[in-house]
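WARN  no MSA supplied for this record, continuing single-sequence
INFO  ligand: 3-acetylpyridine adenine dinucleotide
INFO  echoing inputs
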Amino acid sequence: MAIHNSSHHPPQAASQDPSTTDAGNEFPIAIIGSGFSGIGAAVQLKKAGIESFTIFERAGEIGGTWRDNTYPGAACDVPSHVYSYSSEPNPDWSSKFACASEIQAYLLRIVEKYDLRPHLRLNAPITSAAFNELEGAWTLEVADGRRFRARAVVAAMGGLIDPSYPDIDGVESFAGQSIHTARWNHDYELGGKRVAVIGTGASAIQVIPAIAGKVAKLSVFQRTPAWVLPRGEKSIRAQTKARYRRYPFLMRLVRWSQFLFSELMGPLIMLNAPRLSRVAESACEKHLENSVASPELRAKLHPDFQFGCKRILISDDYLSTFERDNVELVTDGIREINRSGIVTNDGALHEVDAIVYATGFDVAITHAPIAIKGLGGLDISAAWRDGAEAYKGIVVAGFPNWFVTMGPNTGPGHTSVLIYTEAQIRYIVQAIRKLIAQDIRYMTVRRDVQDRYNARLQGRMKYTVWESGCKSWYLSEDGKNHALYPGFASEYRARIRRVTMSDFDITHFEHA
Ligand code: N01
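INFO  complex generated
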């Protein structure tokens, strides 16, 4: 059933509480976040004929990850044709792995194409949400005190949004420039400076080769070396782009072949099968050998955990960057940071002008990024005391009409996250259509259904390489993985194809 509304502007219809504005007409829907998931949800709601939604974005522009990560070299390490919406193939991707600004431009084009601007409220960080059982509605509060009412919420807040700074003594005392990769300072000129990079994860391996040629000296502080595979970067020729434009099915073909390849590689990347891991480790070792001549340096860059336990990194030029005369790899642990630089455990002071923190994110996947109170005032932090859990990663017992994208245990270890989020969005739109069509006050997933799902999921987790002993952001303090999905993406998609109403407790409005 298509739901049409009279206006597609975020309406100001009155709710029960006069200080609260509806997030849309008739059946107000709030989307929190305007990254790939939020924009994708808005497009799919529109396609379903539902216009009564408002997108709340904490920043001044849409884009999420691709707005925030603008460090030199920022790019996606997932091939572009599979890292785009399936319904919006892009014939103009300039290379196999698009850079951050190109992806951000793609998202901005989607916003214009689907006329989403009127639905957007920028600079509107939602700080809390509370459910009202009688109204079957959520009240969302913005940081400036404004309140909005929504019958359904799509929480598309992303998993890696808040930069994490390391807990190192003296961080505050550094007199030079401090920059986090996810909050790059473009006004600061790195050229000719002595620069330290802390971290050797996915962001670091992109920024290090991008700045090495500019700076006077680059000191890379590595705590754990990573397995690095070659990326095989290729720019896409004008002829190929023209062919894509002429025969769009070719883009689908490329997308599916990239997806299929990643699924086939899945077991190699996910399973705790040391012999299988050795195959990939040998490929990384060959890449290391081809990139770095010195055996001592190679030994320092060689990981000692099983391939796949931490996120796999791909780069053509990261390892060879250490061959440069102006680049040093520091493997002594960091003791402290002082006014002039970084002091390592051996007592050496590494004087620098700038420190780049490539130290990752405060992972929102193990806790909710805002205060949420569900049925009977149930607090999300209480519900998730032992770690974040949801049913199919999308709905949470006790939090009715609240739908999450990139929720607990839906992260991919081996393929494009968009394969997962697109399927989640389809599920969410289906559920919202049911809420509207069946005049449901609220639907909340049954606790027993959610518990059974998670018990099975965690049961499978012990066969994965993520629990093979390394430390990674996938694991919470208790060593449990609440981040990744232990299986094929195609299997996850099949699982969430349909909203099964018997999984939910349904409460209807009482009509006189
Ligand atoms: O962050 P990370 P990231 N002293 O947490 C080190 C996505 N992503 O921003 O390994 C010294 O992976 C830490 O060391 P260790 C992707 O999902 C995607 O790089 O904990 N070092 C590590 O080396 C990725 O997984 C793309 O021992 C310290 C680094 O900092 C996620 O974002 C590109 C330290 C942090 O690595 C996060 O990646 C980039 C300390 N006190 C990112 N504290 C794509 O292309 C931390 N470290 C899609």
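Residues 76-78, 160, 166, 168, 181, 198-204, 221, 223-224, 311, 334, 358-361, 471, 473 surround 3-acetylpyridine adenine dinucleotide (CB under 6 Å).
INFO  checksum written, moving to next record
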